[in-house]
Amino acid sequence: MTQTNYVPSGSEVVQSLPWKWNVQGRIFIIGGLGFMFDAWDVSLNGILIPLLSDEWDLSAGQAAWIGTANLLGMALGAFVWATIADRIGRKAAFTATLAVFALFTVAGALTTDIVTFAVLRFIAGFGLGGAIPVDYALVGEFTPRKHRGRVLTAMDAWWPIGSALAGFVSAWLLAMWADWRPPLLAMVLPAILLIFVRLWIPESPMFLIRKNRHNEARKVIDNLVKATGTKPVEYRLETMDDVPKMSAGAVFDQLRRVWAFSWRTTLAVWLLFLTVMFVYYVSLQWLPTFLMEAGFEQTQAFLTTGGMSAIGLVGALVATFLVEKTGRRPLLAVSAVLGSILLVVLAAFLHVPAAVLPLVLIYGMVVQVAIPVMYAYASELYPTDLRSSGFGWASAVSRISAGIGPLLFVTHLVPALTLAGAFAFAGGLVVLAVIAMFLLAPETTGRDLQD
User: Fold this and answer.
1) Residue 116: CB partners within 8 Å, gap ≥ 6?
2) Is residue 284 exposed (0-12), middle (13-18) or buried (19+ Cβ within 10 Å)?
3) Most buried pick, 58, 136, 287, 323, via CB within 10 A?
4) What's the domain range around 380?
5) Residue 134 to residues 36, 89, 94, 204, 266: CA-CA distances in angstroms?
6) Would the CA dihedral through 112, 114, 115, 118 be positive or negative?
7) What is the pTM of this model?
C-alpha cells in the first residue's frame, strides 16, 4: 500500500515557521507599543486623581470616577472591539481602537469640570479597551508555536514600560508646567502608531482562513514563508461551513459562543481576570494617594509608583523565562497569591518610610509575573473564531471590576476593614480564583492554537 503524504494546514505552516525579528518581531513590537500606551493611560489615572482633586475640590468618591469612568469605558470597549476583531479582522479593529483613544484623550485636556472629563475618559477608554484582546489575538496568531508562550508573556513587558513612563514623564512635565493638562496631552502619541499599523501589519492568516478568504490568506502565508527564509511546502486551506457575520447582535452572539465552547474554562478565566486585576488596579490608581496620605511628598509618591511600574519589567522578563518551564497555571498561581500578600504587608508598614520602597518594588516585580502569564494563558484557551472575544469578555469583566472595585475599596472596604484588612479581603478572592483555575481550566503549555 502507498502511504499518502500528509499535507499540513495553512495555520500549521504559520505556527511552525522560525521566529524572525523583522517578520513576527515587527508585529510584536507594534502590538506591544499599543499595549504600552494602554498601560500609560491607565497609570495616568493615578496621577490625575490627586491633581484634579485639588484643582476641582473633589471628594474621594468624586475623584474615584476619574479612573472608574475610564475603566468602565474600557470594559465596554473590550467586548465590543473584540467581537469586531473576530468578525471583520484584527488589523481593522486595532487601527480603530487607537484612533478613538487618542482623539478623546486629548479632548479631555479641554475640560473644566469632573462630569465632562469623566464622560470623555469613558469614551477614550472605550477606544483603548479593545487594544489588549485584539493585540493578543493578532500577535499570538503570527507567533510560531514553540515561541508563543514566551512571546505572549513578553508582550506584558510593554506594560511596566508604559506605566513607568506615565509616572516619570508626568513628574517631568509637572515640574515644568505644574498643570495636569500636559501629561494628558502627551497621550496623542498613540495616533502615530496608526501609520505603522497600516504599513507593516498584515491581516492574521488564521482569521482569513476562518472567513474563507483563501486568496488573501495564501498571499499572507506565502509572504511569511518567503520572509522567514523557509522552504515552501504544499499546504491546504480549509473551507469553513459556519462563518459568522458582523451584525447588531454579534456581541452577544459571541458571548453565547464563548460560554458554549466551555463554561468551565470561561468561568475560571473570568474569575482570574476579575480578582487579579481588581487588586492590581487598586494599587496602581490609588497608591500615590495612599502614599501622600502617609506623609510622602507629591513628586516622591509619583516616582515611587513609577518605580513600582518600572521594576515590573524585570517581573515580565522572569515570567518570559519561566512560563514554558513551569507551565501557565503553577506560575500564575504562585505569583498572583504572593502579590496579594505583599500588598497586605505594604499597607501594614505604610507609615514606615524605610520599608515602603522595597515592598513597593517587590510587589511591582511579582505582580508583573502574574499578569503576563494570565494574559498568555487566556489567549490560548479559545479557538480562532473566539480568541479575541474570549479574551475580550474576560478583559471586560476585569475592567468593570477595576472600575467599580476601587470606588468600593476606598469608600467602603477601607473605612470598614482598614487598608490592610481591605487588601487581605481582596487577596482572599484571588486565592479562590486560583483554586477555580486548577479545578476548571486546562493547562495550555505546548498545545497548538485551536482552529
Assistant:
1) none
2) buried
3) 136
4) 10-242+250-440
5) 14, 9, 6, 11, 18
6) positive
7) 0.73
